[in-house]
């Protein structure tokens, strides 16, 4: 089956994108990334701090993954655009996971600032992957601006609530032609499989793996879940019925 | 001497020092570093030429786990 996942002009074998935040150590992170089979990972920019462990980029290089810097912590379009340009200089990539947060309790996106930042960054030549709400109209507006994908939240970041509004995720898949990546809210493997069954092209998750009791086992589960969900979404599932439909023929049943 | 503010901390600095000079005095990772001065990105290729002025606010950033 020809089932390529092309994002920003690059072909990926894995539809699981992992965030690096929350891992207890770089060693655990490396093992989890390898177990997940991911080819694209997120990372962030913060002030240098000699007290923090060095070597994140070495780990990522060993894993052979492509870098997707984020703009986490930005609350305005101006801050997000500045952070994207800093990330481009630091990591030699014009790919950016665009986050413009509007509320620090839910960490949900600020739609107005997000659109402003996306427009500017597309103009500046970035491959823009915006973290957005599950609003199909906003997703279409982002796609129309030239974003390389849209990444709706299933539920708030780190909540593990799963997919609050599956109907909207399916509507987003219908509303845009670019890849749809379910980003945020995933708690366990069935959430990731569900996202793929709803038609998402990929899943991005971090906490579900990095904060699991056994991150390597959960990364393995997520790898299988994404593959299973993708296959199921392509396989033409049976319709849902209210009553049974026997799978064993009634013909030939003996009479006593 | 002049004073520049590096990641919110005042730092006495020789007049005429460049961004590259400043980074050489800091404990900076060998790669994955970005710099802004007064909110404007100073690209890596400009570090050797960009001279710091008294009161400049310098942000020195690097890769961390996130997202």
Automatic annotation (TrEMBL), chain A:
<comment type="similarity">
    <text>Belongs to the ThiG family.</text>
</comment>
<comment type="subunit">
    <text>Homotetramer. Forms heterodimers with either ThiH or ThiS.</text>
</comment>
<feature type="domain" description="Thiazole synthase ThiG">
    <location>
        <begin position="7"/>
        <end position="249"/>
    </location>
</feature>
<feature type="binding site">
    <location>
        <begin position="184"/>
        <end position="185"/>
    </location>
    <ligand>
        <name>1-deoxy-D-xylulose 5-phosphate</name>
    </ligand>
</feature>
<dbReference type="Pfam" id="PF05690">
    <property type="entry name" value="ThiG"/>
</dbReference>
<dbReference type="InterPro" id="IPR033983">
    <property type="entry name" value="Thiazole_synthase_ThiG"/>
</dbReference>
<dbReference type="InterPro" id="IPR008867">
    <property type="entry name" value="ThiG"/>
</dbReference>
<keyword id="KW-0704">Schiff base</keyword>
<dbReference type="GO" id="GO:0005737">
    <property type="term" value="C:cytoplasm"/>
</dbReference>
<keyword id="KW-0963">Cytoplasm</keyword>
<dbReference type="GO" id="GO:0009229">
    <property type="term" value="P:thiamine diphosphate biosynthetic process"/>
</dbReference>
<feature type="binding site">
    <location>
        <begin position="206"/>
        <end position="207"/>
    </location>
    <ligand>
        <name>1-deoxy-D-xylulose 5-phosphate</name>
    </ligand>
</feature>
<dbReference type="InterPro" id="IPR013785">
    <property type="entry name" value="Aldolase_TIM"/>
</dbReference>
<dbReference type="GO" id="GO:1990107">
    <property type="term" value="F:thiazole synthase activity"/>
</dbReference>
<keyword id="KW-0784">Thiamine biosynthesis</keyword>
<protein>
    <recommendedName>
        <fullName>Thiazole synthase</fullName>
        <ecNumber>2.8.1.10</ecNumber>
    </recommendedName>
</protein>
<comment type="function">
    <text>Catalyzes the rearrangement of 1-deoxy-D-xylulose 5-phosphate (DXP) to produce the thiazole phosphate moiety of thiamine. Sulfur is provided by the thiocarboxylate moiety of the carrier protein ThiS. In vitro, sulfur can be provided by H(2)S.</text>
</comment>
<comment type="pathway">
    <text>Cofactor biosynthesis; thiamine diphosphate biosynthesis.</text>
</comment>
<feature type="active site" description="Schiff-base intermediate with DXP">
    <location>
        <position position="97"/>
    </location>
</feature>
<feature type="binding site">
    <location>
        <position position="158"/>
    </location>
    <ligand>
        <name>1-deoxy-D-xylulose 5-phosphate</name>
    </ligand>
</feature>
<keyword id="KW-0808">Transferase</keyword>
TrEMBL record, chain B:
<dbReference type="InterPro" id="IPR003749">
    <property type="entry name" value="ThiS/MoaD-like"/>
</dbReference>
<dbReference type="InterPro" id="IPR012675">
    <property type="entry name" value="Beta-grasp_dom_sf"/>
</dbReference>
<dbReference type="InterPro" id="IPR010035">
    <property type="entry name" value="Thi_S"/>
</dbReference>
<dbReference type="Pfam" id="PF02597">
    <property type="entry name" value="ThiS"/>
</dbReference>
<protein>
    <submittedName>
        <fullName>Thiamine biosynthesis protein ThiS</fullName>
    </submittedName>
</protein>
<dbReference type="InterPro" id="IPR016155">
    <property type="entry name" value="Mopterin_synth/thiamin_S_b"/>
</dbReference>
């Amino acid at each position: 089956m020809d089932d390529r996942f092309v994002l920003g002009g690059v072909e990926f074998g894995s539809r699981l994108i992992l965030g690096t935040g929350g891992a207890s150590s770089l060693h655990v992170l490396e093992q989890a990334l390898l177990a997940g089979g991911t080819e694209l990972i997120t990372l962030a920019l913060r002030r240098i701090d000699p007290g923090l462990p060095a070597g994140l980029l070495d780990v990522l290089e060993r894993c052979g993954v492509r870098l997707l810097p984020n703009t986490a912590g930005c609350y305005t379009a101006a801050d997000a655009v500045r952070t994207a340009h800093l990330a481009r200089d630091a990591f030699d990539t014009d790919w950016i996971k665009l986050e413009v947060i509007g509320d620090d309790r839910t960490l949900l996106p600020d739609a107005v600032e997000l659109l402003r930042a996306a427009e500017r960054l597309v103009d500046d030549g970035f491959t823009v992957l915006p973290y957005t709400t599950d609003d199909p109209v906003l997703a279409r507006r982002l796609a129309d601006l030239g974003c390389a994908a849209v990444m709706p939240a299933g539920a708030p970041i780190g909540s593990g609530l799963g997919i609050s509004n599956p109907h909207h995720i399916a509507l987003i898949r219908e509303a845009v032609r670019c890849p749809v990546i379910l980003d945020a809210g995933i708690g366990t493997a069935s959430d990731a499989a569900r996202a793929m069954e709803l038609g998402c092209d990929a899943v991005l998750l971090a906490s579900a793996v990095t904060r699991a009791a056994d991150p390597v086992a959960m990364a393995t589960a997520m790898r299988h879940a994404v593959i299973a969900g993708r296959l199921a979404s392509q396989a033409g599932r049976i319709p849902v019925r209210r009553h049974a439909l026997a799978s064993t023929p009634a013909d030939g049943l003996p009479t006593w | 001497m002049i004073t520049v503010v590096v990641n919110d901390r005042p730092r006495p600095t020789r007049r005429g020092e460049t961004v590259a000079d400043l980074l050489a005095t800091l404990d900076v990772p060998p790669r994955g570093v970005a710099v802004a001065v007064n909110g404007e990105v100073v690209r890596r290729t400009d570090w050797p030429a960009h001279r710091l002025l008294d009161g400049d606010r310098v942000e020195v950033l690097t890769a961390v786990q996130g997202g």
